[in-house]
């Protein structure tokens, strides 16, 4: 098991399966909040559903609708259950806050490199524990 | 996070429950950003009136007060929304009543939005209804702290005007409108505004609207969320070219601030762009190969050359762009199976109407439309399978949003496609 330490973005504790994106994620125009699916055609996770997963991604890109679209996933019941953010920005910080899921950033290793899709992850405030699949 | 006495009073309810909820969101958000304090702002560009299924449900449950509480303040409390505390404008949103017979857009949305305009107008929101507030009178000054959303407007405000805003969202602009506060971090702080990446243009000269868009799309890929500095073989850009450049850089990446030495206000020189005493990084070259790669990426979703729909005006067109389109369409007639829409701020559409440009475009069969765009409203002419645009941003987003194919080219190629119904573009 691997333990990472970072900075708390949204407090809380959650355990679940990781979905790792190596590319930045767009909110508006990048996800369909009604289905919880990535819809950007050029994206490595095109067509993949993040509902109920711990979403691990390097950063947010694109429209300022990012947080609003992730808030809509919460209101639609399609949200991820946690976020591990490589590098935080206004978009992803607000997005994690309004999605209201445990979130962490500034980890002591690149989360997109050391966590793989399907790994079992625990976010406990500023600590992340990874059990490899 | 440090709070002033005034901010603590707001948090504790001295200004009412809605302001307290707004301050609660700003505190959660500031904490998430590791901000040291909040800063005072008096220029908010956000979105409240744009229809959505979730919003319609909330309005049905508890009126616009409920919708604003949940969406714009991220609050579950039963709140009564007070007037905006600081000047606040509505960005682009859905289509209005004048588009009903043109755009296949649900009438229920038009009615919901009209209702929203009347509610928010009473609360002091200026219904600018454009993604380019800087084209219609909202021009923050250099150094002015703002709370703007709309990535193409944020990058313009920071880079071209020298104003200071992060790329805010629906909830943070909502909270800012009731408090006049936003976390003071990121682009608000002088030390975070310096260049990080150097991009050197090595011919052919970037001087056309199309080339500025492709260079922007490249810059976003290189810089990600950082601050590219552009040098080399470029002509002096104008408002429309930097509008396109910035929108593209904020699409392929998350760029919120760039510098062009000698052109943009915070970079009188290359050294100033990176901060005095800082090393200038070695350049990433944008030459003919990179230019072609951008062109091919923006055209990779297109396979069929039968164009149903031509979209101009992303970000919303300037009067000069409308005039150029009118000149190309003068005396022509669109192909029977093809529609052409130009999106514009309503205030500039009025100018185009008065100048006779709209009439020329309509005689050819095209339309000048205000308030919205196909991406915001998820609406294109019925049956559209293939569209063409002169906007790198729309070429990127619309295939994902509407599931259609895209061609990216010049204004002339787009107008030719509308007239012939065929795409015949190519990189020149």
Please, could you describe this protein's structure?
The complex is a heterodimer of chains A (133) and B (428). Chain A is of the alpha/beta class and 133 residues long. Chain A is 19% helix and 34% strand. Chain A has an eight-stranded mixed β-sheet with strand order 1-12-11-3-7-9-10-2. Chain A has a two-stranded parallel sheet with strand order 4-8. Chain A is globular and about 35 Å long. In chain B, the strands form four sheets. Chain B has a five-stranded parallel β-sheet with strand order 12-11-10-13-14, sandwiched between helices. Chain B is globular and about 65 Å long. Chain B has 428 residues and is an alpha/beta fold. Chain A binds chain B through residues 7, 9-10, 24, 29-30, 34, 39-42, 59-68, 71-72, 75-76, 87-91, 93-98, 100, 103, and chain B through 25, 28-29, 32-34, 47, 52-54, 70-71, 74, 148-151, 154, 166-172, 183, 186, 220, 224-225, 250-254, 297, 300-301, 375, 396-397, 399-401.
Shape of chain B: globular
Shape by Cα distribution of chain A: globular
Question: What is the count of helical runs of chain A?
Answer: 3
Low-confidence stretches of chain B: none
What is the fold's blueprint, element by element?
The complex is a heterodimer of chains A (133) and B (428).
Chain A: E1 2-5, E2 7-10, E3 13-20, E4 25-26, E5 31-32, E6 37-38, E7 54-57, E8 60-61, H1 66-76, E9 82-85, H2 90-99, E10 103-105, H3 111-114, E11 120-124, E12 127-131
Helix pairs in contact in A: 1-2
Chain B: H1 5-11, H2 17-32, E1 38-40, E2 44-46, H3 53-72, E3 88-90, H4 107-122, E4 125-126, E5 147-148, H5 151-161, H6 170-179, E6 181-183, E7 197-206, H7 209-223, E8 228-234, H8 239-252, H9 270-274, E9 284-286, H10 288-298, E10 309-312, H11 319-329, E11 339-344, H12 346-355, H13 357-363, E12 367-370, H14 374-377, E13 386-389, H15 392-402, E14 405-408, H16 411-420
Parallel strand pairs in B: 2-3, 2-5, 3-4, 7-8, 7-9, 10-11, 10-13, 11-12, 13-14
Antiparallel strand pairs in B: 1-6
């Amino acid at each position: 098991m691997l333990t990472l330490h970072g900075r708390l973005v949204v407090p809380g504790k959650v355990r679940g399966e990781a979905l790792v994106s190596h590319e930045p994620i767009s909110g508006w125009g990048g996800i369909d909040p009604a289905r919880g699916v990535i819809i950007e055609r050029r994206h490595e996770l095109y067509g993949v559903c993040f509902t109920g997963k711990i979403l691990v991604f390097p950063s947010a890109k694109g429209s300022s609708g990012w947080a609003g679209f992730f808030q809509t996933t919460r209101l639609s019941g399609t949200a991820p259950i946690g976020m591990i953010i490589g590098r935080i920005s206004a978009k992803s910080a607000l997005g994690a806050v309004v999605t209201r899921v445990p979130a962490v950033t500034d980890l002591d290793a690149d989360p997109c490199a050391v966590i793989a899709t399907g790994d079992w992850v625990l976010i406990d405030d500023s600590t992340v524990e990874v059990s490899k699949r | 996070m440090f709070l002033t006495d005034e901010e603590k009073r707001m948090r504790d309810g001295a200004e009412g429950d809605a302001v307290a909820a707004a301050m609660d969101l700003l505190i959660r958000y500031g904490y998430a950003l590791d901000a040291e304090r909040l800063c005072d702002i008096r220029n908010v560009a956000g979105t409240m009136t744009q229809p959505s299924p979730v919003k319609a449900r909330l309005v049905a449950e508890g009126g616009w007060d409920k919708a604003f509480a949940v969406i714009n303040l991220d609050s579950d409390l039963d709140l009564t929304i007070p007037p905006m505390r600081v000047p606040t404008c509505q960005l682009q949103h859905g289509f209005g009543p004048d588009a009903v017979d043109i755009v296949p857009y649900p009438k229920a949305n038009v009615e919901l939005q009209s209702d929203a305009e009347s509610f928010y107008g009473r609360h002091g929101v200026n219904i600018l209804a454009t993604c380019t507030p800087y084209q219609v009178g909202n021009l923050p000054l250099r150094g002015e702290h703002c709370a703007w959303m709309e990535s193409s407007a944020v990058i313009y405000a920071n880079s071209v005007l020298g104003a200071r805003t992060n790329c805010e969202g629906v909830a943070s602009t909502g909270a800012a409108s009731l408090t006049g506060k936003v976390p003071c971090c990121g682009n608000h702080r002088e030390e975070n505004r310096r260049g990080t990446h150097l991009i050197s243009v090595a011919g052919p000269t970037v001087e056309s609207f199309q080339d500025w868009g492709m260079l922007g799309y490249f810059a976003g890929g290189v810089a990600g969320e950082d601050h590219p500095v552009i040098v080399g073989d470029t002509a002096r850009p104008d408002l429309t070219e930097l509008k396109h450049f910035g929108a593209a850089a904020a699409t392929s990446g998350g760029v919120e601030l760039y510098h062009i030495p000698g052109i943009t206000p915070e970079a009188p020189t290359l050294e100033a762009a990176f901060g005095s005493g800082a090393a200038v990084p070695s350049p990433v070259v944008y030459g003919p190969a990179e230019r072609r790669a951008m062109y091919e990426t923006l055209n990779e979703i297109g396979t069929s050359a039968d164009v149903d729909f031509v979209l101009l005006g992303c970000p919303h067109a300037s009067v000069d762009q409308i005039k150029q389109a009118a000149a190309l369409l003068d005396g022509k007639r669109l192909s029977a199976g093809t529609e052409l829409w130009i999106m514009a701020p309503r205030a500039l559409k009025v100018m185009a109407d008065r100048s006779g440009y709209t009439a020329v475009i309509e005689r050819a069969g095209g339309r000048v439309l205000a308030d919205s765009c196909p991406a915001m409203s998820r609406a294109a002419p019925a049956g559209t399978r293939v569209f063409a645009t002169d906007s790198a941003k729309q070429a990127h987003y619309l295939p994902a949003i509407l599931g259609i194919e895209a061609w990216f080219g010049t204004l002339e190629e787009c107008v030719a496609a509308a007239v012939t119904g065929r795409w015949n573009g190519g990189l020149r």
